[in-house]
Design brief:
about 425 residues, alpha/beta, Rossmann fold, Purple Acid Phosphatase, chain A, domain 2, 2 domains, 6-stranded mixed sheet, 5-stranded parallel sheet, binds cytidine-5'-triphosphate, binds magnesium ion
Length: about 425
């Protein structure tokens, strides 16, 4: 069984079903928050039921602190009642981390027999009966409560033989500290990308791919790595060429890319989903249709593999297409996903038909530098420790890179205006200062 790390693991089952035994086998003592231990902590007696409310108050507080620090946390309590699970789910939701349920739905005879073997304290058989009756009514409902994954054990042997592997969230690149060259929204502008890479000192060689197409292979200077802020596709003249280059570089370990909203929409279209064909998607589909058979499916898989955001350098650098608030760095929820793709939108639209966005960057006080794209600006724009490097190449602006950790900007001029921005972002001739 794969368990996301960090996440909140909620054990559910009657007394004597083996929850604590299971927890001890698979998790570190500091990862396990057991209601018994919290009861003992405040009343010197782990079976003192009067201490139960206080014990759970402390348990949830501790779980919240652990999740705040991105620590995998296991809640070892019966959790057969809806309210108990809801409180666990609320904590996970508050910290934008997944909750995983592990249900011990063992028969009464097994739980009673196991309970009798306990060297410490035994629970009355009646209590076990009650837990089992409550859980039996709940197993269907648990499916709809908001757990990311639910694993049900129906026999002690099943619980005994399972192996658990932890899986780091795909944003977890804290061990990589560069040097990086971060590249703004490319939008199918392959010639400008090649020019920018040359300017950054990358070697370029065109080589054949297995499907008969050609790909640009890059040779980075000084072990540098490319980081794309997403929106590789749409509007520009050569989306397939950009996708090939980035995929090849990622496979060779020379690049990483997050997913932009355009990449996500193209991926959904290639998966057969019904999406609105707008904002340059038709150009991408037409260009892809001229590629060898199998290319579309290859690119669907590639785009699907792109993470929504990445956290580097011990947490000092965060890359996300539309930026990311500090409390969402390294986290994994629907809210994080929407923020990474679209920014802090309100659900309303402005006079240009663009989603109204809250100015999260103006309120950003995080310690990480956040590099992103999504909304074109005339020049790379620093706001607090956030840097937007989408300088509107596809709209006739510039394609911009920033070197990390140097934070030097390198740009090349767009070769043409391939689309009109919905909202003007370039100064008009008249508004520019005289040169
Ligand atoms: N046990 C066992 N074989 C297993 C699992 C548990 O023999 N596969 C035994 C344990 O050694 C223990 C008893 O069954 O003596 C109860 O297991 P425990 O893990 O303590 O059960 P919990 O579900 O944690 O019960 P409670 O809710 O009361 O804490
Ligand atoms: Mg226990």
């Amino acid at each position: 069984m794969l368990i996301p790390d960090p996440s909140l693991v909620v054990l559910i089952g009657p007394s004597g079903s083996g929850k604590s035994t299971f927890a001890r086998k698979h998790f570190k003592p500091t990862e396990i928050l057991s209601s018994d231990a919290f009861r003992a902590m405040i009343s010197d007696d782990e079976s003192d039921q009067h201490a139960t409310p206080g014990a759970f108050e402390l348990l949830h507080l501790t779980a919240a602190k652990r999740l705040q620090y991105s620590r995998l946390t296991v809640i070892d309590a019966t959790n057969v009642k809806t309210e108990a699970r809801r409180q666990c789910l609320d904590v996970a939701r508050k910290y934008h981390l997944p909750a995983i349920a592990i249900v011990f739905q063992l028969d009464e005879a097994t739980c009673v027999a196991q309970n009798q073997q306990r060297p410490d304290r035994q629970v009355p058989d009646q209590a076990i009966k009650r837990h089992i009756a409550t859980l039996d009514q709940m197993v269907r409902q648990i499916q709809h409560e908001g757990f990311r994954e639910i694993r049900v054990f129906r026999t002690a042997a099943e619980a005994e033989t399972i192996t658990i592997k932890r899986q780091r969230h795909d944003s977890w690149k804290r061990h990589l500290n560069g040097p990086f060259d971060l590249i703004g929204d490319v939008h199918g502008c392959l010639p400008e990308l090649l020019e920018l890479l040359t300017k950054l000192g990358y070697g370029l060689e065109q080589i054949p791919e297995a499907d008969g197409g050609k790909v640009w292979e890059i040779t980075p200077p000084d072990q540098r790595q490319l980081l794309f802020v997403g929106d590789l596709v749409d509007r520009g003249p050569d989306t397939p060429g950009v996708l090939r280059l980035v995929r090849h570089a990622i496979r060779q370990g020379k690049a990483l890319s997050v997913r932009g909203n355009h990449d996500d929409k193209l991926q959904r279209k290639l998966s057969g989903r019904d999406v609105n064909i707008s904002s340059g998607l038709a150009d991408s589909l037409e260009q892809i249709s001229r590629e060898p058979i199998g290319f579309a499916e290859e690119m669907r898989g590639f785009l699907d593999s792109l993470p929504l955001h990445l956290v580097f350098d011990g947490g000092r650098l965060v890359v996300s297409h539309a930026g990311l608030k500090s409390e969402l760095h390294g986290r994994d929820s629907d809210r994080v996903r929407a923020f990474c793709l679209f920014g802090d939108t309100t659900g309303e639209y402005d006079q240009y038909g663009l989603p109204i966005r809250l100015n999260w960057a103006a309120d950003y006080h995080g310690s990480a530098t956040v590099v992103y794209g999504h909304v074109p600006t005339y020049q790379p724009q620093w706001v607090n420790k956030t840097l937007c490097i989408d300088t509107g190449c596809v709209f006739g602006g510039w394609l911009t890179a920033v070197r990390y950790p140097e934070m030097e900007m390198v740009s090349v001029r767009s070769h043409g205006k391939f689309a009109d921005p919905k909202k003007p972002f370039m100064p008009t001739e008249e508004s520019l200062p005289p040169t």
